């Protein structure tokens, strides 16, 4: 029992907070006796908001925002009945049927790296048909949906850890039902009551998050059902068996459904191979053909080539679709590459030579792009990759503005009043162009129109980060020995700290 009385000092208060949030004291009984069923009063709504916001972290939602939207009219098949093979077998398990019916199994989306799993999961998570099919399962019950999109290439740990997963799911779900907050986080609610709301709640630790998640699961019932959509299990750091155990525990509740995705690693195959599932690269032939055909049709160079070489144009599209082997990432890179050749007015022999020389695998394709990089740009590309790695340090965020200002081409004496919102927007735009030409698009910017100063640099895909890691010695050798990426980052961050106060006081940004 926590002794309630006058606080002697700050240390006493800190000890009370630690104790209340630990597993040494169970506040759930106190909550049952003191907390109303509904979160209705102003004070209760404020407490619920404070607790929910204590789960938030800056990079929450970043990965989902970076995932490309599906190309128009692709992936429609996932909400339809499965097609059959020539032998009459279904090519995948019906996703609508799994949504509509009671099921004690997790739905697994698997596929090769770059096949488009994250794009498919994002499409599923936000399409109106998801709710329409789930409504048959919920049968009038309240439906809560939690989504999480991890990102292994991120420099921020919470984008790829169990703690980040639980914080994000709890944050999303508790926003949808405030009356659950006190029962899921009884210790935090008790502390707010004790201090009359005048308390900055600390970030939750792993054990508290696990207790809260289990408390949430125990709240599910015939009248309150929960759906979890979790992308990229292979993106998580640490023990993947621990992760599958967590999802299995959650899925034991009859009022919980889980849809997840991953690469076909053994740890996931062992867990989900007998579950309802689909293997993405086996199902996207028509989607990829649609993407290639319409993408090329927007190229004036291809239109001219198609008129003069109609048979070759048709054959080329078919060859690219087959060579892609269901990998959307491969075909998106190759399409961009070939459109450059069309723009330059290539002939049939040149085009055949280029297509024949394209590697089939994404990793080999990245090497192909690196080898094609203009020699004078390769040094800059190496510098950018090394700067990106320097951001692996804790609490360091790869903002576009830091990348831009850290460059030796930018004077360290730049004045605060010169760094206006327009300057930042143009700097991000220029950096985006340089990253495309120098790194072949392996690094890219995520531009935020309303807040350009928060735009970031990131890898275009997990496989790009993996490739850079494996080719590191080759990449790093392309710069001078005395190049120090840490000085680049330091310079950029020091310059950024100068104008922040000035810009805000001058109201140039904000």
TrEMBL record:
Give the matching Pfam families. DUF7791, NPHP3_N
Q: Where is the NACHT domain?
A: 105-264
Where does the record place a coiled coil?
A: none
Q: PROSITE patterns of this UniProt entry?
A: NACHT
The UniProt keyword set, sorted, is: Repeat
Name of the protein in its database record: NACHT domain-containing protein
Q: What is the organism of origin for this protein?
A: Eutypa lata (strain UCR-EL1) (Grapevine dieback disease fungus)
Identify the taxonomic lineage of the organism of origin.
Eukaryota, Fungi, Dikarya, Ascomycota, Pezizomycotina
């Amino acid at each position: 029992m926590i002794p309630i009385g006058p606080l002697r000092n700050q240390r006493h208060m800190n000890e009370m907070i630690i104790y209340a949030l630990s597993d040494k004291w169970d506040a759930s009984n106190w909550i049952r006796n003191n907390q109303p069923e509904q979160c209705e009063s102003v004070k209760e709504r404020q407490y619920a908001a404070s607790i929910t916001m204590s789960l938030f972290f800056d990079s929450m939602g970043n990965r989902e925002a970076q995932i490309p939207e599906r190309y128009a009219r692709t992936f429609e098949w996932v909400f339809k009945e499965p097609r059959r093979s020539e032998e009459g077998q279904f090519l995948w398990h019906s996703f609508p049927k799994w949504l509509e019916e009671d099921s004690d199994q997790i739905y697994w989306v698997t596929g090769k790296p770059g096949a488009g799993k994250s794009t498919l999961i994002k499409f599923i998570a936000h399409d109106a048909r998801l709710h329409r099919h789930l409504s048959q399962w919920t049968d009038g019950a309240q439906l809560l949906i939690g989504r999480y999109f991890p990102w292994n290439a991120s420099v921020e740990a919470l984008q790829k850890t169990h703690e980040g997963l639980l914080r994000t799911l709890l944050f999303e779900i508790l926003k949808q039902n405030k009356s659950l907050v006190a029962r899921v986080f009884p210790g935090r609610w008790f502390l707010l009551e004790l201090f009359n709301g005048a308390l900055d709640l600390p970030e939750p630790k792993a054990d508290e998050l696990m207790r809260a998640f289990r408390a949430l699961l125990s709240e599910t019932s015939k009248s309150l059902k929960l759906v979890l959509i979790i992308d990229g299990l292979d993106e998580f750091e640490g023990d993947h068996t621990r992760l599958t155990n967590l999802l299995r525990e959650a899925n034991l509740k009859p009022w919980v459904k889980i849809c997840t995705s991953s690469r076909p690693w053994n740890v996931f195959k062992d867990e989900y191979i007998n579950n309802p599932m689909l293997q993405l690269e086996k199902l996207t032939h028509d989607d990829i053909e649609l993407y290639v055909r319409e993408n090329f049709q927007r190229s004036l160079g291809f239109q001219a080539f198609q008129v003069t070489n109609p048979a070759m144009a048709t054959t080329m599209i078919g060859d690219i679709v087959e060579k892609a082997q269901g990998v959307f990432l491969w075909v998106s890179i190759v399409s961009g590459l070939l459109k450059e050749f069309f723009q330059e007015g290539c002939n049939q022999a040149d085009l055949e030579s280029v297509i024949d020389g394209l590697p089939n695998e994404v990793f080999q394709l990245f090497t192909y792009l690196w080898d094609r990089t203009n020699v004078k740009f390769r040094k800059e590309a190496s510098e950018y990759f090394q700067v990106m790695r320097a951001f692996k340090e804790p609490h360091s965020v790869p903002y576009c503005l830091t990348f831009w200002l850290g460059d030796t081409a930018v004077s360290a004496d730049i004045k605060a009043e010169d760094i206006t919102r327009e300057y930042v927007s143009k700097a991000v735009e220029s950096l985006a162009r340089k990253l495309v030409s120098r790194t072949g698009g392996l690094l890219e910017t995520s531009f935020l129109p309303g807040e350009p100063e928060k735009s970031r640099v990131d890898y275009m895909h997990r496989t790009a980060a993996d490739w850079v890691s494996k080719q590191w010695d080759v990449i790093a050798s392309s710069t001078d020995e005395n190049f120090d990426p840490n000085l680049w980052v330091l310079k950029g961050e020091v310059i950024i700290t100068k104008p922040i106060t000035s810009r805000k006081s001058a109201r140039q940004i904000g």
